[in-house]
Structures are given as C-alpha cells and as structure tokens.
Amino acid sequence: MRIGAPRILTTAMRKNPADQCQLIATAVLHVRSRRANSRSALADLMGLSRSTAGLYVDQLIASGHLHESGLEQGAMGRPKRALTVAPDAGWFAGVEFNAERVQTVRVDFSGRVTGSQIKPLPADPDTRTVMQEIKAAVAMLSKNAKSPLFSIGAGAPGIVDPRRGMGLSYAFIPGWKNVPIAKALRDRFKAPVTVDNRACGEMVRRGTRPGQLCDPGTALRLRHRDGSTRAIDQWRPSCRG
C-alpha cells in the first residue's frame, strides 16, 4: 500500500499548517488508544464540530492512516461506524543498548509489536562497533517491513543530550564521547530520531530500574497501557498544502 501525506484543508479548519498537523497527529493518537472509536467521539474529545472532525477523518482515511468499517452499537443511540488505525500505514523502531548488547523492536502504526531482537556485543566494544551494530539491527528489522519507517526512538546509556540527540559520555564503551546518535541514524535511515537515556528508549515510564535493560516486547506492552511508545507519540504527518 502506498501511504500518502494528509493534505491540508483550510475550509472550516484551522489555517495554520502546523496546527493542522498537530490536530491530525492528535486524532490518530485518540483512535490508536481507543479513546475515540467513531467520528462523533473524536469530535467530542478534540473539542471540534462534527463536520470538522469528519474532514480530518476523511483525509486520514484517504492517506491510508485510518480505517472506517462496520457498525458499532453503543449503549444508547444509533450505531456508529468504527474507526481504527491502519496497522500497515508505517512502522516505528525502538532501540536500546549498553556495553553488552543491542536490543531493537519493530512496532506497527497501531502500536502492535511485530518484531524484536537482541544482539550481544563483542567484549569491550568501541564506539564505532556499537554504532555499526545499532545500524545493522535496525536494518534487519526493516527487511521484513512492508511499509515506511516513520521514526526511531533510541535509549542510550550514560549521559545524553536529548535535544541534540547525542550520547555525551558512557564509561563502559571506550571513546563514547559526544556521539551523534540521532544524526547517524537519521542519515542512514532517512527518518526522524529521538534519543533519551531512559530504559527502552522511553518506551516505559515505570517498572524498570535505571540502567536496567528490559525486554522490548514487555516494555512496549507495559508502556502501551498508558499510550504508545515515545516514537509513536511523536509521530507527525508530512502534511502538504
């Protein structure tokens, strides 16, 4: 399936493209989390008129990000057509590593884990080796992906500068000083990258001790109870006018 970019609509909608892209992303998050499973529920959650919410839904369906099918009967009122996120619209990669191993996970657009792997590192790996293994691990995930990579979330050890996407220092990897993690992954995979030093790339906000590696699948399932992974949460459409 070819996924298109949602087109900016100006009639009866906010005219600032950044505002519209934010609203589109918010609409997807509400449907993915199942807080909204119909056009009317989405309108109520976002404080929009039914017609305006319907325009957003129409363009997300046209661009391949949402599905609308069947009828869902609520406790009261007329049955509503059900909204769901299109799992195959794209995917997200989560990476976590330390001096011993690299862990990666692939998550589809609906937030479901579709692949994961753990790759042990050689003894006393240097910076170059670690970065090569990270790139190779993400590339391996992409081999079986049938849709575009939307973004990468990386959990790095030691001291991290999230704003610049850099690993500033980590005593257990020789030469790990001011490593441009985000730039290296962005250049290789042509996708947005977020870097943090929390367990599983900010996939879990509780349940693991600082510095402790966690299983990617378990991490995503835990984190998904409160929302989606950081990479998914920060997805923004490439809106066009």
Description of the molecule:
With 241 residues, the protein is α+β, with helices and mostly antiparallel strands. It has 2 domains: 17-86, Arc Repressor Mutant, subunit A (Orthogonal Bundle); 90-233, ATPase, nucleotide binding domain (Nucleotidyltransferase, domain 5, 2-Layer Sandwich), CATH 3.30.420. It is 33% helix and 24% strand. The chain has 8 helices and 10 strands. It has helices at 17-32, 39-46, 50-62, 127-143, 181-189, 199-202, 216-224, 230-233, and strands spanning 66-72, 80-85, 91-97, 101-108, 113-120, 149-155, 159-161, 166-169, 177-179, 193-196. The protein has a 5-stranded mixed sheet with strand order 5-4-3-6-10, sandwiched between helices. It has a 3-stranded antiparallel sheet with strand order 7-8-9. A two-stranded antiparallel sheet has the order 1-2. Helix 2 (39-46) packs across helix 3. Residues 8-12 and 199-229 have low confidence and may be disordered.
Topology (elements, then pairings):
Elements: H1 17-32, H2 39-46, H3 50-62, E1 66-72, E2 80-85, E3 91-97, E4 101-108, E5 113-120, H4 127-143, E6 149-155, E7 159-161, E8 166-169, E9 177-179, H5 181-189, E10 193-196, H6 199-202, H7 216-224, H8 230-233
Parallel strand pairs: 3-6, 6-10
Antiparallel strand pairs: 1-2, 3-4, 4-5, 7-8, 8-9
CATH class of the largest domain: Alpha Beta
Describe the main β-sheet briefly: 5 strands, mixed
The beta-strand count equals 10
**In the CATH hierarchy, what is the architecture of the largest domain at level 2?**
2-Layer Sandwich
Unreliable spans are 8-12, 199-229
Separation of the first and last Cα atoms: 22 Å
Which strands sit side by side, in order, in the main sheet?
A: 5-4-3-6-10
Q: Quote the average pLDDT.
A: 79
Order of helices and strands: HHHEEEEEHEEEEHEHHH
